[in-house]
Amino acid sequence: MIILGYWNLRGYAQPIRLLLEYLQVDYKEKLYNQDGEEWLNVDKQQLKTNFPNLPYIIDGDIVVTESKVIPIYLAKKFKNYELIGQNPDGSFNLNEITFLQILEILKELRDSLLNSAKVPSFKEEKDQIFNEKFNITFEKIKKQLGENKYLLGNLSFIDFYFYEVLKFFQFFYPKLSIFTDYIDRIENIPQIKNYLETKENKIFILDRMKSYFYY
Ligand SMILES: N[C@@H](CCC(=O)N[C@@H](CS)C(=O)NCC(=O)O)C(=O)O
Fold first, then answer.
1. What CATH superfamily classification does 2-82 receive?
2. pLDDT at 8
3. pLDDT beyond 70 at 50
4. Which of 17, 35, 54 has most ligand 1 atoms within 8 Å of CB, for mutation?
5. Which ligand 1 atom sits nearest the alpha carbon of residue 68?
6. What is the per-residue pLDDT for 202?
7. Which numbered atom of ligand 1 lies nearest the CA of 6?
8. pLDDT per position as a tens digit, 100-159
9. Does the Cβ of 56 fall within 6 Å of ligand 1?
């Protein structure tokens, strides 16, 4: 059974959880408490990799870290190559490159939002920041999506990543309604719907972010 290790929050692990749920993989989570004791003093020392970090995946003897690499491992292991932009048989498709580009852009967008929201003036300036900064990226993503259902045409991991980024934006900008059809589409994928209705909302509440940010 695959083990996914991460802090007891959504963070970098959440899109990976959505991927595991989508693939209907038999997995369990190792959730670390905020005090960091068990992770830093025990598991980080013992994890069989030269690059211990959170999130990690343990799959038998294999340990994979790095949140943008774990999905590549999972897509290849479960032979669902389109999830990383490749052709169904795993051969090269230019979408593979677009996949990496978008992943990078989305990570920057996510990090930029969270860094901006850590600054006290964010509360007053957030609309201006949205218009001058974030919306530029959203316009590009809108172009990429076009009339398609998903960012690469077919569903891929970057859709789970983008969904999570949009949830962050919904949290900081509750009045904003962007990509609403897209969000509905992801939430109505049967495996995701089931996950959101059962496990997710019980444990990973965005409200936990309240104490860290200004909004
Ligand atoms: N580049 C890494 C960064 C991972 C990272 O910064 N993990 C944070 C949580 S989001 C952490 O607390 N890592 C545990 C550690 O550094 O010991 C990735 O994308 O997975």
1. Glutaredoxin (3.40.30.10)
2. 86
3. yes
4. 54
5. 19
6. 46
7. 9
8. 999 999 999 999 999 999 999 999 999 999 999 999 999 999 999 999 999 999 999 999
9. no
| Ligand 1 centroid – CA 56 distance (Å) | 9
Sign of CA dihedral 212, 125, 14, 57: negative
Domain boundaries, the chain: 2-82, 95-190
Q: What is the CATH number of domain 95-190?
A: 1.20.1050.10
**Residues 82, 88: Cα–Cα separation, whole Å:** 6
- Residue 210 Cα to ligand 1 midpoint, Å, equals 21
* Predicted local distance difference test score (pLDDT) of residue 206: 61
Q: Is 67 in the pocket of ligand 1 (CB under 6 A)?
A: yes
Buried b (16+ CB within 10 A) or exposed e, 156-190: bbbbbbbbbbbebbbbbbeebebbeebbebbeebe
Q: What is the pLDDT averaged over residues 44-59? A: 98
